[in-house]
Amino acid sequence: MDETYQIYVNRVASLTLPTTYQNQLNNIQNSPKFQQKQPVPFPGYTVLTPPYQDDLVNETFYHQLTLIQQQLIQKIEPNFLIPVPPESFHLTLADLIWEDNYRNAVQTDQDFNQKLKQAISDSFQAYEKLDLEKGQCQWQILGLLVFPRALVVGLVPCNELSYNKIFQLRRSIYQNQELIKLGIEQQYHFTAHITLGYFGEIPDDLDKSSLESIILSFNDQWIEKKPQVLMLEQGELRKFENMMRFLSDQSNPRVRI
C-alpha cells in the first residue's frame, strides 16, 4: 500500500501548494479527541520514534519545532489550535489500533496486549534480519501540512535509503500474519509528520486567507534556512491513553532503524 520513494516525495510536496491549502482549509473540523481543550480518553497502541522528552539525539530539531509551535500560536486565532505538549512531539511510524477497536479487542481477549507486543517484537526481528544498505535514516522538514483535524509538520526523506528503511519496517509490521489475526491492518498511506496541534474552536468567520498566508510564510522560512533534519535511530511500541500521553514501558519492543 505504501508508495515508491519518488511518488511519496511528489505527493507530500503537493500538500504544500497554495491551492492544496485552500481546499484543505475549507474542510477542517474540530478534533473529537478534545473537549474544552482537554484530551479525552483515546486508548490504543502505535509504533513511533521516541518522543522529545525521551529523545537524546534530536534535541536541536525538537527545540526548533517548539519555537515554531509558539510562533504559530501567537499568530493565529485564539483557541483555534490546541497545542500538543512539546515533550510528546514524535513521528508515528505505523498506526496500529485505537479507540473502540482497541477497547473491544481487550474486552474480547484478556491477553490481547501481550499478543500484540509479541507480534510487534517478531516484526522488529524480521526487519533487523533484512539485508538493507547501511546508513543513517534522515528525514527533513518540508513544510506545514493541513490535516482535517490537525496542523502538522510534514517530513520527506533526505535520500532513497532513508525512505526504504521506513518502507521495509512498515512492511514487516503490516504483513505480519499474527498482527492481521489480531485485527490490525494498514489503513492509511504513510505521510511522515509531527503534530503541532489539533483544531479546537473553528470560528464561523475564520480568516482562511490570512491563515494560508501564515502557513506559507513559515514554509518560506524553511526554504531559506538549512534543512531541519530528524535522525531516525529507533522505533518502539507504545501505548497511549490520549493524544497527549504516550507511555514508556521497558517491556515494550524496540528496533534499531
TrEMBL record:
InterPro entries: 2H-PEstase_DUF1868, Cyclic_Pdiesterase. It comes from the Bacteria. Pfam families: 2H-phosphodiest. Residues 33-103 form the DUF1868 domain. Signal peptide: none annotated. This is DUF1868 domain-containing protein.
